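Mods, move this if it's the wrong board.
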Amino acid sequence: MENEIFNKEILEKLQELKIKPRARWHFLLKNYAIWVSGVFALLIGAAAVSVMIYLGSYNDFAIRQDINKSFGEMLLLTLPYFWLIFLGLFIFIVYYNLKHTKTGYRYSIGLIITVAVITSIFLGGIFYAAGLGQELDEVLGQKAPLYGEMINPRVDFWSNPEEGRLIGVIVDQIGDEEFVLIDKDQQEWLVKIKGDDFVIPPQAGGPLRLIGEKKSDNIFEVFKVMPMMPGRGFFKRMNGGPHPPVPGNPRMLERIEVNY
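Not the wrong board. Structure tokens:
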């Protein structure tokens, strides 16, 4: 009897507040949507891991003595903070979505985050092996604002001629010991070869990293030349861009064509 009265009071209250029961499909759809968005967030996090693996596979720790940097300095200056934050954000989204599923209350935050991180690393390794990390870096290099400052800090790290580091694309060869290079700011440099430590020969093509010494505003002496892998896409922005000529030398190219 008491239960009947209680149920009647509840029904009257629901009618008074004009609350209508929702169909079962509504809750099922919501649950599926949460799971789908959680899986999508996990895949995005794995894509971020694939880019970090790609960036890390071309670390510069082996040449830190050539540029007078300690291991710690190199790590702090080139760590992909953007991708770490990006990964953390999407792992949080995975956690948030899982907690709001029908059975999410059963799992602790530590378990969810651990599984999400391990899964992201595992899938990220697969994505990297498939070439996704490099492809994402290439596309972002061409299109994303603040790419060199945030997404791939190595572009900015290697764009410091005052400290003996320079990156750019060779646009003209002047004899056997000089060439013209356009840096990331589309400034033209006359580069003089003073060594023979070349991972690849200095010739026109993809972007290069140079270690040497700045001699004047537009003259750089180089003793070590290496390819630039992560960040290559950034230099494809140069096509058609103007650049200031080297003082005392005619402008080599009115239009830059970067093909690689």
